[in-house]
Specification:
Number of domains: 1
Largest sheet: 6 strands, antiparallel
Distance between the termini: 80 Å
Helix content: 25-40%
Radius of gyration: 21 Å
CATH topology: Nuclear Transport Factor 2, Chain: A
Shape: globular
Strand content: 35-45%
Structural class: alpha+beta
Oligomer: single chain
């Protein structure tokens, strides 16, 4: 009779150890924020290797014009864009909220990026501030949480302190 509780405990331990541990919403939000912090570091320092580590190997999206953007095309576009940035002054990327679905999550994020950029003449500089809200699709991979899709919801652009209107 005294062995039965030990047997139950052993069964619970065996099956409990095999069960897949799911992360809490807070743990997922923290992990995604950590990835966004790495992205900010990569952008601020123009570290293309760190930036590419944050992009899934099977990354493919369609842009607004319908062009298919592969991982390599994303790298090419990022380097092109970074070439006209003189200095990042401030860059914040925040996870506002998430909805988790097992090994995937939808994250609502906001970004504010202030930077000094070159004009087309390559010499004149402007201070640019962009704000943007996103809905992002994240998946947990063997490399951690990676961003698979971004939908821009809108924001504002300021050039030398003046709101830019298209």
């Amino acid at each position: 009779m005294k062995l039965f509780p030990l047997f139950c405990l052993a069964v619970i331990c065996i099956f409990g150890c095999r069960a897949k541990k799911t992360q809490s919403n807070l743990e997922i939000k923290t992990a995604i924020q950590s990835q966004l912090d790495k992205c900010v570091e990569a952008v601020n320092t123009k570290n293309i290797n760190l930036y590419m580590d944050l992009i899934p190997p099977d990354f493919v999206i369609k842009d607004q014009s319908g062009e298919i953007i592969t991982r390599e095309k994303q790298k090419e576009y990022t380097l092109r864009d970074w070439a006209i940035i003189d200095t990042t002054l401030n860059n914040k990327f925040i996870v506002d909220s998430i909805q988790a679905y097992g090994d995937s999550a939808i994250a609502h994020t906001s970004q504010r990026w202030e930077r000094v950029m070159f004009r087309q003449d390559g010499k004149t500089k402007d201070t640019i501030i962009t704000t943007q809200k996103h809905i992002e699709t994240w998946k947990k991979t063997s490399s951690g949480w990676l961003n698979y899709d971004v939908k821009e919801l809108g924001g504002e652009v300021f050039i030398n302190g003046i709101l830019y209107k298209e």
